[in-house]
Please model this.
Amino acid sequence: MSEKTILQIAGLYKRFGDFTALHSIDLKVREGEFLAIVGPSGSGKTTLIRLFVGMDEPTDGTIWLRGQRIDTVPANKRPTCMVFQSLALFPHMTVGRNIEFPLKVAGVDPAQRRERALELLDLLRLPREYYAKRIHQCSGGERQRVALARALAFDPEILFFDEPLSALDFRLRKTLEKELKDLHARTGKTFVYITHSLEEAMAMSDRIAIMRAGRFEQIAPADEIYSRPVSRFVAEFMGEVNLFPVRADDDGVIRADGLALDPAVAARLGLHAGEAGTLMVRPENVAMVNRSDAGGAAPEITIGGHLRAEYNLGSRLQYEVEGPSGQRLTVETLRENRFGGAPGDAVTLGWTLDRCHVIHGD
Amino acid sequence: MERLDRRLGALTATPMLVLLGLCFLAPLAVVAGFSVMPSKVFDLWHQPDFSAYAELLRQGYWKSLAWSLGMALASTLILLVLCWPLAYAMAKVYRRFTLILTIGVVMSLFVSENIRLFGWVLTLMKGGLIEGYLRHWTGTGFDGLLYNMPVIVFGLVYVYLPFMLFPLAQGISMVPDDARQAAADLGASRARILWEIDLPLAAPGIVVGCLLTFVLATGAVAESKLLGGQAVIVIADEVETAFTYGQDWPLGSALAMVLIAIVGAIAIVGVNRVDLDAIMGRRR
Amino acid sequence: MEPSRLSRAGLLLYGILTLGFLYLPLVAVGFASVSKARYLSFPIRRYDTGWYAEAMASDTVRDLLLISLKVAGLVTVISMIVGFFGALAFARYQWRFRGLFQKLILLPIFFPQTVLGLALLMWFNALGVVPSWHTAVVAHLVWISPIATLIIAIRAYSFDPTLEEAARDMGCSTLQILREITIPLLMPGVISAGLFAFLLSWGNFPLSLFTTGADSTLPEWLYAKMVAGYSPLVPTVGVLSVVASAVLLAVALLAPTLVRLWRRNAAD
Model:
């Protein structure tokens, strides 16, 4: 991946009647990267991708591809290509003719088209006999690969994906996620992938852009988004999380409801006088500290509560604890560290400072 | 894309709009024009008056209109009852037979209405298929079943059966099975399921079926002429007579306008209640 | 909720009886066409195919067939084209007057055909056009092309619009999309619309009655004879007309199978 920008958008707006789907969006996509755009449904991600490939026109703002403005170029003249959620494979054509389609439109001669289609079948690890198969004879995973092969045949500058895996079952989705990541590495193309599933984004992408209500909340590598989210929305969107409102008084004293916080530790949270924030800690970073065999570093922040329930998540166990002001807290631990308490038991939860993160602002 | 859609929509609608504008709306305007001309003229360059409408009231044409509407209503209701079980079976019970029945019914539509009604004449007349064989086997015959009002309704029921059957079947197929199952699970009786689940959910199909049948039957003429003899004169027949034997285009036009107004009002009100996209199986 | 065996059997019987009810009059016509007697009365005592020979030899019948064929042929071709584009405007594209357009298309189907025929007669008169079989084509089109539109629209509704978007994304122009994607995918609908158009035009009488002028189609001639009193040629020509449409229908239904067989043989 280079630092060169391949796609850039600035001040992009899209309105449908009274509804504003995109509010002044800015984004730079780097050459060769795998960028995932993640957001709940209705956050504007599909609208955004349709503007990228030219199926809709922006209300305002510009899109540059390698420094050239493309927002006024119609879809059929843009060197980008999209893999649709529905895949949009042509049901009246064979697999081979589907893959060859962009080459046919570009005027490539039949022999060359066929050769390229067979190469792409190899690349996607589909048997060459599939060339003559009909689309309805292919399984879900095979169709997925055919759609990818067709998009690659177009040889786009950037390949866009609109949740193509969302209709598949869990296991197939996991396999294809790995294949897609592998394909990205082998082709060296720029991939921009839209999904509502964070897991999918984490599994494949170099960077993740979190969208909410027509704006980007945070654009960063997956690890950073997971451990240092910039907002409560991102923190909660990225999976289970414990959040505690914290506030520094004007005289610098830090108040956190129910948390036992040593003043020396509190000073290191990085809150300025008069500032409010949210302390975030992921369930797997929380330990039950009243166990004799707690182990690990001594907790710097603790909170008391009562055990409510234990859930078996397979490889891990999850505990639900009711905090002092009735809030719901979550703890996750590996199976072998089972707590073994009964509902109603008093417990103390604790974690170290370097495992939590403060989100600034309300 | 929306802008392109808008342009292509208008573009692709153009041939049809030209056809309907020139050969449907324009002729209707001509009919409207003639209906306000003085009696027995053959062009539109006269002082408009409403003498044709006045004539229409004086001559008691409302009787024909009432007959047409009444028989159309009767045949619509009969068809609704007759077709419901069949449509239900097509949508939910039959498997392969649905296709056979569909093909069979559609093919019957391709035979000219005249020939089919003529077939009924041959079947029902004195010495026809029914009476002839009855006399042959039992020795006693009857006078034939033709030339009365009920046989016209029978003819309407026969001719418009497909127009009720297919929309009904389409409507019933839109009723999800799990809704009926859930209702049954919650203790609803068969009658209750019909009333609370089937009828409301199949309503678009019922509306379209009744509308088509009623409107087409109101304007029908061949049934009364071939099967009914002169038992009842229907409104479309009066229109035709005014134009041909009567040679009174304004009177015929005024009669046609009344028929158009009634049929058009019913059709427009009905069509507005139905989501065409949904009933025709729209995907997005 | 599965219906019982008994009610299933009852419904099946009901369906079969309905089919019988629909076709019973044609059976009567069929018997009548082979009765030797000049004045028909059941049961038929002597069967004879003489009326068929007479009908075949008749110049009138040949002219009627020819005119009906010309009208139906032209109506088929034009309504397939108009209906194809009409269906796209009806079902596929989101444009401002789509709702209005959908309702406008339904109006001629609902319209009393006799009145429509008369209205067209007056319109042609006002334009100074002399009615002939050409004007009958126009009259049929007003009723049949909306039906063709609806038939193709059903197909257009089940068609995934992202297919066209995908093709555009890969560089297709609007015309290329039409040729490569839209036409092939809507073709089955267009063909069945064409079949409907031909058969409906072939059997139509109320529209032809006032708009053919001096020419006459088969159904018109049959009607004139029926109203005038019994003629043994009526059932005969009626049967011939039904057989002609049945043959066309059979060919149309079998054609895809035959083409597939032929292709398979050619491929071997």
